[in-house]
Amino acid sequence: MVVREKEAEMVDAFIGCDPDHKKELFEIFSDYDELFQEPRGFPPKWEIQREIHLQQDAPLSNVGMYRMASIEMEEIKK
Predict the structure, then answer these.
(1) Which residues contact 30 (CB under 8 A, 6 or more apart)?
(2) Percent of the chain having pLDDT more than 90?
(3) At what angle do helices 19-31 and 6-13 cross, to 10 degrees?
(4) Are 23 and 7 spatial neighbours (Cβ–Cβ below 8 Å)?
(5) Can you tell me the distance from the alpha carbon of 78 to that of 74, in angstroms, rounded to the nearest whole number?
(6) Range with the poorest average pLDDT among 10-14, 26-30, 46-50
(7) What is the dihedral of CA 14, 34, 31, 24, to 10 degrees?
(8) Concatenated DSSP letters of the chain
(9) In Å, what is the CA distance from 52 to each residue of 21, 33, 42, 57, 59?
């Protein structure tokens, strides 16, 4: 694991940016530092847990995920 200074990471993040805007971007990221932290652990549980109930032995649908041209469809079937 490599430990780097925070400022070095920020400078690396702005490689290729317009030099005139680099300082402004650095200040914005510094002001909202808590938003750009690596996540730690899992998010808190929701009050309402959502789940999808599946039917047992139900056949899988044979529907394409998105439309495509007939030429593309024929090529996929080959």
Answers:
(1) 10
(2) 0
(3) 130
(4) no
(5) 6
(6) 10-14
(7) 10
(8) -----HHHHHHHHTTTS-HHHHHHHHHHHHHTGGGGSPP-SPPPPPSS----PPPTTPPPP---SS---HHHHHHHH-
(9) 47, 36, 21, 15, 16
Whether the predicted model's global pTM rises above the 0.85 cut: no
Per-residue tokens: 26: 């650095």
Q: How many residues does the chain have?
A: 78
Take residue 62 and report the two structure tokens written for it. 């044979």
Q: What's residue 1's pLDDT? A: 47
Give the start-to-end residue ranges of the domains of the chain: 1-37
Q: Per-residue pLDDT tens for 40-63?
A: 888 888 888 888 888 888 887 777
